[in-house]
Amino acid sequence: MADNKQIAAEGVYEIASPLEGTIIPLNQVKDEVFSGEILGKGVAILPAKGVLVSPINGVVDSIADSKHAVNLAGDRREELLIHIGMDTVTLNGKPFTLKVKEGDRIKIGDALIEFDIKAINDAGLDLITPVVITNTGDYKDITVIAGPEVKAGAPLLKLKA
Fold first, then answer.
1. How many other CB atoms are there within 10 angstroms of residue 97's CB atom?
2. Distance (Å, rounded) from C-alpha 3 to C-alpha 16?
């Protein structure tokens, strides 16, 4: 994430969906770090396709060594964590193919990570993918505006600064 705490841009704006799939409330994720909103507010998506795209215009801040999670820093100062599946760190990056690297400029719809849904399922892991606004405290309100199904690039979250 950003080195120093930044204030969110003024106004109300939307975050696009990084995946095509089924919306799952964050409180239903089987990991209390996400369900308890410890990392921030957001939503989870059960992916229908194995392509994660950028939900914002900004920069790739960091990528987990195991390629299963990415942190993004948006041009409107929004900070996001997208975590593909639960316990997928144990796969050591095998079902994931990076399409970007840290520091890359990204725009909505750019492919970030491709992943093999079958390999993750075959490993017995949950594919539910949290999309979390990690600088939640910078916003007055974060609302899920999609569901029950969502297409990649469609409106997902509304942020009110």
1. 14
2. 24
Query: How many C-beta atoms lie closer than 10 Å to residue 10's C-beta?
Result: 9
What's the whole-number average pLDDT of the chain? 93
Round to whole Å and give the CA distance between 155 and 10: 19
Please name which of 78, 62, 56 lies closest in space to residue 9, comparing C-alpha atoms. 78
Which residues are catalytic, by number?
Answer: 83
- 81: helix, coil or strand? strand
Give CA–CA dist 27/37, Å, rounded: 8
| Segment 104-129, tens digit of pLDDT | 999 999 999 999 999 999 999 999 99
Does residue 100 register a pLDDT over 50? yes
User: Tokens standing for 34?
Assistant: 């996400």
Q: Which residues pair with 12 in a beta bridge?
A: 160
What gap in Å lies between CA 149 and CA 20, rounded to an integer? 8
- Confidence (pLDDT) at 147: 86
Global confidence as pTM: 0.92
- What are the b/e assignments for 78-94, b being 16+ CB within 10 Å? bbbbbbbbbebbebeee
Query: All domains of the chain, ordered by start, with CATH?
Result: 22-160 (2.70.70.10)
